[in-house]
Specification:
Strand order of the largest sheet: 3-2-1-4-5
Shape: flat
Structural class: alpha+beta
Helix content: 25-40%
Number of helices: 1
Order of helices and strands: EEEEEH
Distance between the termini: 43 Å
Number of strands: 5
Number of domains: 1
Strand content: over 45%
Length: about 100
C-alpha cells in the first residue's frame, strides 16, 4: 500500500463466524463505492462485525479494486504459507538426519 491511496467508507455485506478452540474468527464480506462503481472483498479477522456496519477502506485510485483489507489478507496467507514451509523443512531435516 502506498501513501497515495484514498479512503472511503465500506459496508459489511455479510459475516460468517468460524469458532475455533481458542477463539472465534470471522469472514467478513464488504463493499465500497468509488466513482459510481461498486467494489468489494473478503477478509478474516478476530474482531466481531455485523451486517451493515461501516468500515474504513483504503483503496488504490489507479486500481480501485485493490484495497487495504484484501491486501492485508493476501499478506497474512503468504506469512502462514511461509511458516508452514519452514516447519515442513525442519521436519524433513529431522527425519533425514
Amino acid at each position: 500500500m502506498r501513501k497515495d491511496w484514498k479512503d472511503t467508507d465500506g459496508t459489511v455485506a455479510s459475516v460468517e463466524e468460524h469458532p475455533t478452540r481458542n477463539r472465534t474468527q470471522y469472514s467478513v464480506v464488504f463493499t465500497y463505492k468509488v466513482d459510481g462503481e461498486w467494489y468489494g472483498g473478503t477478509f478474516t479477522t478476530s474482531e466481531s462485525y455485523r451486517k451493515d456496519d461501516t468500515i474504513a477502506v483504503l483503496y488504490d485510485p489507479s486500481q480501485p479494486d485493490r484495497n487495504n483489507l484484501v491486501e492485508r489478507e493476501k499478506i497474512r496467507h503468504w506469512i502462514i504459507g511461509a511458516i508452514l514451509c519452514v516447519v515442513a523443512l525442519f521436519l524433513l531435516y529431522a527425519v533425514l538426519h
